[in-house]
Write a structure and sequence with these properties.
Layout lengths: L5 H15 L4 H52 L5 H4 L6
Length: about 90
């Protein structure tokens, strides 16, 4: 997700400690954790909804594809209509 190493985390912690103070830092961390959890849950919900909508769209296409394959197989196996057996010049 984010490419933050241990050194960057230490710098961020020191800056936060200087800006917010030692008494307010745990409260800030707890609030940040809750916010990130809610954001993750919302993104997961949107992803699940998108996946379900794509699945609904793929079902008719899959059914049509299998019907097309079955029809093609029938035509290959000799149950071709008379029209396709005729020569191009004949009508």
């Amino acid at each position: 997700m984010l490419d933050i190493g241990i050194q960057e985390l230490i710098v961020i912690f020191i800056v936060a400690l200087l800006v917010f103070g030692p008494k307010r830092l745990p409260e800030l961390g707890k609030t940040l954790g809750k916010t990130l959890a809610e954001l993750k849950k919302a993104v997961s919900g949107v992803k699940e909804q998108m996946d379900s909508e794509l699945y609904k769209l793929e079902q008719p296409a899959s059914k049509a594809g299998s019907e097309l394959s079955a029809t093609r197989d029938e035509l290959k196996n000799g149950s071709e209509p008379e029209k396709q057996n005729s020569k191009p010049g004949e009508g």
